Model the fold of this input.
Amino acid sequence: MRLGFGLCATAFVALAPPAASAQGRLDAQYEATLAGIPVGKGAWTIEIGDDTFSASAQGGTAGLLKAFSGGTGSGASQGRVVSGALVANAYTATTTTQKKSETIRLVLAGGNVKDFSIDPAPPVDPDRIVVTDAHRKNVLDPMTGSMLRVPGNGEVLTPDACRTGAGIFDGRLRYDLKLDYKRMETVKAEKGYHGPAIVCAIYFTPVAGYIPDRPVIKYLATERRIEIAFVPIAGTRVLVPFRMTIPTPFGLAMLEATSFVTSAMPPRVAKTN
Done:
């Protein structure tokens, strides 16, 4: 789940002129499948205001997988909207399985991690590449990073929206993500959004906090077929994932929105006497 959020992390925090008091909300439901078999479900809620934003998500295993490896997770991020860019100041993620529960907390300021914790503290692994203070500068948390801010005031669904990258820190792992444009297509949720989407290729490069011999790290670092389809939150210049696909040795892994309801909210009007 942590890596799933991170691989969606694509926001490049550019301080560009914002749209005039744009606000929007998203309420979405997602289903995860592996080789066409349902393995998980989740929900994501995002609110973007004039000067603040918040996002929260929760999900868990489903179908046959739940009988063998039950688990749930939740995450939240909040912060300020600075010149149209989303600048987080706090991030929390909790995962619970049959064997344990873990909570990660980050405190951020200006793109730098000021404090973080993992509860309970994980054991020290000598094979893990150490995360230094320098690795925790100029980064995004996984959830804020999943929201792609398009600078400027023109069309948001253009190839240039994909041509960006970001550094991500999830409390344990520090990695870089690079995007590139692939194509435009039309997507349709069972409820809500039906319209254009921009499809980006995404490339994962581990930097620190990982164990080099782990097969999943090696696989993701060399895989070149991971895709994310982005669509906009109404009333904003923020794109969020509608669908994500990752080829695996066991079949295609896919996270896709089944419900994607987004609405623009009118700007606040200052009171006058």
Notes: DSSP finds four helices and 15 strands in the chain. Confidence is low (pLDDT under 50) at residues 1-21. The radius of gyration is 18 Å.
